[in-house]
Amino acid sequence: MKIVRIEHPHHYQKHDFPSLTIALGFFDGVHKGHQEVIKMTKEIALEKNTKSAVMTFDPHPSIVLGKKSNVQYITPLQEKIEQIATLEVDYLMIVHFTESFANLLPEEFVKQYLLLLNVKHVVAGFDYTYGKFGKGTMETLPIHSKGEFGVTIIPKMEIGDEKISSTSIRLSLNQGDIERTNELLGRKFVNRGTVIHGEKRGRTIGFPTANILIEDDYIIPNTGIYVVKMLVKGNWELGACSVGYNPTFNRVGESNLSVEVFLLDFDQSIYDEEVTIEWHKKLRDEQKFDGVDELIAQIKQDEDDTREYFKELNKET
Known about the structure:
CATH class of the largest domain: Alpha Beta
CATH superfamily of the largest domain: HUPs
Largest sheet: 6 strands, parallel
Order of helices and strands: EEHEHHEHHEEEHEEEHHEHEEEEEH
Structural class: alpha/beta
Radius of gyration: 23 Å
Low-confidence stretches: none
Shape: elongated
CATH topology of the largest domain: Rossmann fold
Number of helices: 10
Distance between the termini: 31 Å
Number of domains: 2
């Protein structure tokens, strides 16, 4: 997959690219709906003897348009690149989303970012918009193309009665519903981060944890205790993860959110290691215990539940 980073205004011409069938979207999460758009793009590219491409944008438009000061992503840019690469498209075009780019009229976007890039066919979801104020829609795209390229609209995809969307995935994560999140994604949700020094409280009660500083751009699941895997030093280790404020030891407002992973049958120093947390299932909500003994008993139960989860998972596979 060739990655093309585009600054606005760009100076590309048609002869700089082969004929392209291109998927358009922000693609945060690269979820099942996005995968369907990209799959259709590849199929049409094969039929029309063109190369397949995906066009995405960075950063999130809401940052540039002043709606939000920062955005936490399901898939920050680097992970988005990696996920799209697994779908085996020929080109990934990353357009730097700026205020001047956002002010392009719909017909200007079509001319400068589709026609000048030698696009012969466009594939996008039914709700894709483009151009200033999102005035361009999939209904207006054939008009703006003036017959220069074809258009394929991917209809709304649902699981049950729920639309598969980045918004629904964010909601699931905010509710701690990891299993629903993974169903919508079509794979396990992950966070990446670095092991840092914490308060080492877990070590004193017999359950040493790795304190993870999650990369800023990631959305993190809601507070609670989760079954996870963690990629560390090239190996996937099994564990349980606590997301929360350690209410047994801290007063409300005294502590920042922490992400701590207790790895099963693991005894290595991993400070400063870059790790990936793969989220599987929520075990329970975060809770405050009356004392350390009660906390230890619950952590032992969490460990047993985690081992049972992976035991059952191995049976299924």
